[in-house]
Every structure is written in structure tokens, then in C-alpha cells.
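thought: user wants a sequence for this fold. calling inverse folding tool.
action: design(structure=
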């Protein structure tokens, strides 16, 4: 199967100054722009966590954004990715902010 057809799922957690800086809103916008689905939410320990699913190359673009870009006033210290795997179908129909 070509990379364009292959669907990928990955969990992420972003560390740094990522709460109170519109990080979730920008993440949702970026995910919709790129064309991936999943979710994002704040954690009680000051990080942002979530899951991204979609075509492999689009998920890779989103992973790069979550590692290097973020919202304009955020400061990303590091982003941990886990449970990276190929999936046969998407678990979500869109990208949403969870509370």
C-alpha cells in the first residue's frame, strides 16, 4: 500500500508553555487545514495531549507542527509521541477540542 493510502494514528503530549496560549484552538485549526482527525485537550499537569489520525504524510506534517510550531505565543520544550501505528480506518470524523 502506498504511503498516501496508508492511515496512521499517533498519540502526543506537548510540554512547555502550552496552556493559556490558545494552543488547542491553533491545533484544531492546523489539523483541519492539513486534513487530519483526532482531538486535543489540556491536562492537569500543564501539558497538552491528544491523538492524530489520517493519511501517513498528513499525520507526519501535524507531528512536525506539534513539535516545532504550535500557537504564536506558546513555547514548546518537547513533544512526546507514542502508540504510533498503522490503522485500517479512522476512529474520528473530525478534529475536536476536548474538555
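)
observation: tool returned 99 residues.
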Amino acid at each position: 500500500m502506498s504511503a498516501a493510502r496508508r492511515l496512521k494514528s499517533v498519540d502526543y503530549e506537548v510540554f512547555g508553555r502550552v496552556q493559556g496560549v490558545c494552543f488547542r484552538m491553533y491545533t484544531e485549526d492546523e489539523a483541519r487545514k492539513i486534513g487530519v482527525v483526532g482531538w486535543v485537550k489540556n491536562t492537569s499537569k500543564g501539558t497538552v495531549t491528544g491523538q492524530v489520525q489520517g493519511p501517513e504524510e498528513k499525520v507526519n506534517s501535524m507531528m512536525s507542527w506539534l513539535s516545532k510550531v504550535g500557537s504564536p505565543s506558546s513555547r514548546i520544550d518537547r513533544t512526546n509521541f507514542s502508540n504510533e501505528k498503522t490503522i485500517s480506518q479512522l476512529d474520528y470524523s473530525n478534529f475536536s477540542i476536548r474538555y
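thought: summarizing for user.
answer: Here is the designed sequence. Strands lie at 7-17, 37-42, 48-55, 75-87, 95-97.
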